[in-house]
Structure formats: structure tokens, C-alpha cells
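Input C-alpha cells:
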């Protein structure tokens, strides 16, 4: 076999190997799986999103975004305890992940309002323009009967995002604050 023929055979063999590798595709990465999971989640396919995020976590247990996104799927599916576990895992990896802090506060506020208050305050320390955190902190303070501070926080929330105004409780002199949409019985006398 001449050297020219060997080069041709080698080139042909390498091109076949390259074609075979390309046909097999590259193995997915944790980041690519998170992207696929997000696409599925946005398309409303939460089952696929959940399994894809779980695969991403298997490939890289330190992928904070995969844990966070899996937590959001669990929240939407009505599994707050699983969501709390994923948000907690996210925060172990990245303690400054503000969306995970916020969602953890939302999911724990009913059972631990003091803990949720601390979480909202951490969110606001990291991201002072997080309007929904100001709004929810106001609700926590309202529950603690700290109405003047609650009103200040609601004012900050609305200043940052005017669309939140419809969520702010209204007050009437002599009456406790109420949430919009909740009627208050009045006397006809």
C-alpha cells in the first residue's frame, strides 16, 4: 500500500469515526439538562421538567439552578415540603440565591413567620429592589401587629412595582386592615 493510499484510508477511517461520534451526539451536561427542563416547564410539561432537573442534579449535585428549578416544579405540583428541600439545597450551594430565599420564605411563612421574616430581610439585603419581598414582609409584619412598619414596606413595594398596589390591604379608620377582595360586613343602621 502506498503512502498516498494509507493517507486516504486513514482520512476515510477518521471521517467515519467522526461521523459515528456525531451521530451518537455528545452526552448531556447538567447545564444542558437544566435548559431542557426549563423549556419543558415553560411548555407546561412539569413531569418532563421534573425528571430532567433530577437528571441534571445526578450529573452535578452542586447545580444550584437545577435544585431551584426542581423546587419550583414541586411548588406548582403542590408539594411544598419537597420544594423546601430543594430551595434549602440551593442555598447550601449558593447562600445568595435570592429567588430561592424568597420562595423558601413563601413556603415557610405559615409555619414559621419569624423565620420567613429573616429570609425576606436577607433577600432585601441582597436585592433591595425586590418588590414582592417588600410586599410579603409587610404581610408578615401585619401578622405581628406591626402595622406602621407593614405600611412602610407596602409603600416601598408599590413604589418599586405599581402593579402590586392591588395586593396591598386597604384600611378604614377604626377598622383593621383588610385585603382587597375580602368584603367586610357592615351594618345597615
Amino acid at each position: 500500500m502506498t503512502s498516498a493510499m494509507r493517507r486516504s484510508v486513514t482520512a476515510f477511517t477518521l471521517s467515519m469515526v467522526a461521523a459515528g461520534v456525531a451521530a451518537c451526539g455528545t452526552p448531556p451536561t447538567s447545564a444542558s439538562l437544566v435548559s431542557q427542563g426549563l423549556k419543558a416547564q415553560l411548555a407546561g410539561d412539569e413531569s418532563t421538567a421534573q425528571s430532567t432537573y433530577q437528571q441534571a442534579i445526578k450529573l452535578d449535585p452542586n447545580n444550584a439552578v437545577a435544585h431551584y428549578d426542581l423546587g419550583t416544579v414541586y411548588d406548582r405540583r403542590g408539594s411544598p415540603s419537597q420544594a423546601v428541600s430543594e430551595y434549602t439545597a440551593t442555598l447550601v450551594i449558593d447562600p445568595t440565591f435570592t429567588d430561592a430565599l424568597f420562595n423558601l420564605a413563601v413556603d415557610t411563612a405559615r409555619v414559621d413567620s419569624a423565620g420567613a421574616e429573616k429570609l425576606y430581610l436577607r433577600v432585601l439585603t441582597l436585592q433591595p429592589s425586590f418588590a414582592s419581598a417588600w410586599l410579603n414582609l409587610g404581610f408578615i409584619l401585619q401578622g405581628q401587629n406591626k402595622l406602621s412598619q407593614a405600611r412602610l414596606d407596602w409603600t416601598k413595594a408599590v413604589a418599586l412595582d405599581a402593579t402590586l398596589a392591588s395586593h396591598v390591604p386597604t384600611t378604614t379608620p377604626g377598622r383593621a386592615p383588610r385585603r382587597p377582595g375580602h368584603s367586610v360586613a357592615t351594618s345597615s343602621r
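The longest helix spans residues 3-24. Confidence is low (pLDDT under 50) at residues 1-23, 172-189.
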